[in-house]
Amino acid sequence: MLDGETPIANGYSLSDSGGAGRVIVVRGNGRKFEGIVVDFRVDAYVLDGDRLVVARRPAYTVPLSNGSLELKLDPNVNTG
Asked: What is the tens place of the pLDDT at every residue in 65-77?
């Protein structure tokens, strides 16, 4: 998938910034809360009626010498 946002339903979107940076966000519809509702990394999702079912893999950030952060997938999670 290319970087960007893919609408899901009811203000929810898959936001993809590349690599491990895949999250579910919610915006609009008069919500009191807007932002990330499922954090890194969303591997898959399915809309089941009113429910959003998400498979995610924990990720963490590593500080880099230039002051930015790099996302890495948690190596302690069995993915297969």
From this structure: 999 988 788 777 6
Give the separation between CA 35 and CA 23, rounded to whole angstroms.
10
Pair of tokens at residue 6: 């893919």
Cα 16 from Cα 4, distance rounded (Å): 5
The identity of residue 15, as a single letter, is S
Burial of 73 (0-12, 13-18, 19+ CB in 10 A): middle
- Please count the other Cβ atoms lying within 10 Å of the Cβ belonging to residue 23: 21
Give the start-to-end residue ranges of the domains of the chain: 4-73
pTM comes to: 0.70
Measured torsion, CA atoms of residues 30, 37, 1, 46, in degrees rounded to the nearest 10: -90
Amino acid at 62: V
